[in-house]
Amino acid sequence: MLKLTKKADYGLIALKHLAVNASQGVASAKEIAECYQIPLPLLAKVLQKLNKSGLLRSEQGTNGGYRLGRDAREISTLDAIRTIDGPIILTHCFTDHGGCNQSMTCTVREPLRKVHEGILNLLGGISIWDLAQEGMSAPRGSCEAPIPPPHKLYELTGKTV
Amino acid sequence: MLKLTKKADYGLIALKHLAVNASQGVASAKEIAECYQIPLPLLAKVLQKLNKSGLLRSEQGTNGGYRLGRDAREISTLDAIRTIDGPIILTHCFTDHGGCNQSMTCTVREPLRKVHEGILNLLGGISIWDLAQEGMSAPRGSCEAPIPPPHKLYELTGKTV
DNA sequence: TAAATCTAGGACTAAAACAGTCCGACCGGA
DNA sequence: TCCGGTCGGACTGTTTTAGTCCTAGATTTA
After folding, report:
1. pLDDT over 80 (residue B38)
2. How far is it, in rounded angstroms, from Cα A62 to Cα B116?
3. Can you name the residues that pair with B127 across neighbouring β-strands?
4. What is the C-alpha separation between A141 and B39, in angstroms, rounded?
5. Rounded to an integer, what distance in angstroms lies between the CA atom of residue A32 and that of residue A43?
6. Residue A99 DSSP symbol
């Protein structure tokens, strides 16, 4: 509960990767997927969404790939999460007000709305550039490294209990 | 995405109800359920959890019901949400660190952890008492009101699309 | 003491969201 | 023209969530 989806995770990882390696031109979906052990078609989907919303810019054809649509400082984590997972809604009452007419059913709504806005501010205040600042180390070295077992490793460590 | 479950909603509503009507002694699950058009068995489940964790105190037998386990100021919304929905985890990496050993798979983790803690602080800073302060109006008047059609009304207004 | 009324709590079902896969189409460079 | 890349929808299996049902235990009232 109250957690990010994996898609959002993947999206943020990809955005950070692009921000860090911006100097090297484009990066293909395949490249990113292999680097972080993300299922390629799933990542492709996420990147497509980010592309359509303008956060990324795609280049087709051979040696194509993705690059950031605008400066990393101009892309907030909120932007990314919202385009990938849709709008963030804390309670159900926020969307349809028709259901709330029943007496004081939603008296808790207003206080929660503050929490909601707080979270939005929090996410909105962090840009992809900020993400890229931390843990700058070892981005490309481990990516080109050979990864002998394609699936085994992922299955062993991927348990998100 | 990033939203509270209905159970958590119900729990907060119930807690607020008990905080507002604390002077009137206990309130039964049935009473609260009818007041807010919440399915009784579901609410009962939520109340049981809150009871077991000490946030509520139950009184059995005829004229039994629930009352707050401690002062409303001492119960944060974070307490309630966490006991109902389990721990709040923003990303999957927080729980098992074994999955993160793969190169820099989780370089976005640390920044997100800040967001995570921010949300926790936000929720932890709001108590049930705070909820009860806003929208004090019309708590019991509408509760005792006759509700002629037991189900019809719920179906009409309960749509939380 | 017996009945009524309430909570306690597990087992179960249905629906929705999520994670991931597959396939065909389009585009651009070699 | 061919190949490697993106684009984008349709599809499936799994998990979570919402809600129901039923039985047991406790306490008050008659």
Report:
1. yes
2. 40
3. B76
4. 56
5. 8
6. G
List beta partners, residue B58: B66
Q: What crossing angle do the helices spanning A29-36 and A40-52 adopt, rounded to 10°?
A: 130
The reported pLDDT for the residue numbered A91 is 66
Alpha helix stretches (DSSP H) within A21-157: 29-36, 40-52, 77-85, 109-124, 128-133, 141-144, 152-157
Task: For residue B68, name the pLDDT band (cuts at 50, 70, 90).
Answer: very high
What is the DSSP code (8-state) at residue B107?
A: T
Pick out residues 30-49 of chain A having their CB under 7 A from any atom of nucleic acid strand D: 30, 41, 44-45, 47-48
> How do residues A1-58 score in pLDDT, each as one tens digit?
677 888 988 899 899 889 988 888 889 999 888 888 888 999 999 999 999 899 999 9
pLDDT digits (tens, 9 = 90+) for A105-156: 556 667 777 778 888 888 888 899 988 886 554 444 455 443 333 333 333 3
- Residue B76 per-residue DSSP state: B
Maximum C-alpha span of chain A: 63
Given CB atoms, is A41 within the 8 Å cutoff of chain B?
Answer: no
Specify the 3-state DSSP secondary structure of B95: coil
In which residue are the tokens 């729990």 written?
B11
Shortest alpha-carbon distance between residue B159 and chain A (Å): 6
CB pair distance less than 8 Å for B105 and A13: yes
- Report the relative pairing of strands A56-59 and B56-59 from DSSP bridges: unpaired
Q: Kindly report the nearest CA distance between residue A160 and chain B, in angstroms.
A: 6
Separation of alpha carbons B48 and A33, rounded Å: 45
* H helix and E strand count, chain B: 8, 2
Q: Would you state the structure tokens that stand for residue B77, as one six-digit string? A: 């919304």
